[in-house]
Amino acid sequence: MMSVGETDGVALESAQRLAAEIQERLREDIIFGRLRPDEPVRLIQTAERFGVSTTPVREAMAALERQGLLSSQPNRGFTVNNFDAHDVEDLFAVHAFIIGRCAAAAVPLMSNADLDEMVELDQQMTRAVEEGRTEEAIELNDEIHRRIRTRGNSIVMGRLLSETAPFVRKLSDRDAETGHYLRTVPHVHILDAMRARDADKVAELMTEHVMAAGIAAVQHFIEHDRVSVDGR
Questions:
Q1: CA nearest 176: which of 220, 143, 212?
Q2: Domain-wise residue ranges, the chain
Q3: Identical fold at 4-80 and 85-225?
Q4: What's phi and psi for 54, nearest 5 deg?
């Protein structure tokens, strides 16, 4: 039988997981255009939609506001922000810088066995892209990035990545049917630089890798959302 403290801990973890799930659903609605710029996002209506109390919904919306997707005003609730292609580019630039730092920090912590496993994952990803197995390729790409990120993570970088990564992932997924962002800068060059223990080169290549994904995402955003790069 669990103690009161253990019960509270389980309840807290469950509430946090619920808020994260709602945040993910709302983020997807915004990025994929189901919630449009300047559209109000009502607290009570959203809670009813997901069949939950307003507490996890409020937490999810507050997180999305920190990420720049929503804005709030006293007594008026939340509205969807109108972001453009420049905002998408800025987001990828910030994310690329952070992940580049993480990759550089991971260099002395990666064993040759770790790198061998990641080379195999990269080869599997390349085959998946060539054979049109996009979802599998995305999962493999994510796993490579996860391994690099977790090895080189710090508390500060981890917190920043928790804000940028979900947005970057969704924007990248929108262009996943072409596989373009997966084909940009191969991971093999990053992994070779890691094996050579060249942290500066790793940071440079990882930053380029993420920014290449950003270029694909910006182009997709312009073509499908009819947003001009001069529209800011």
A1: 220
A2: 4-80, 85-225
A3: no
A4: -75, -15
pLDDT tens-digit readout, 70-83: 999 887 889 999 87
- The whole-number average pLDDT for the span 147-169 is 82
| Coil vs helix vs strand at 195 | helix
User: What CATH class has 85-225?
Assistant: mainly alpha
List the one residue out of 149, 154, 155, 153 whose CA is nearest residue 168.
149
Cα of 212 vs its chain's centroid, Å = 15
Q: What is the pTM of this model?
A: 0.72
Task: Note the CATH architecture for domain 4-80.
Answer: Orthogonal Bundle (1.10)
Which whole number is the average pLDDT over 158-186? 65
**CA 78 to CA 74: how far, in whole Å?**
9
pLDDT tops 70 at residue 226: no
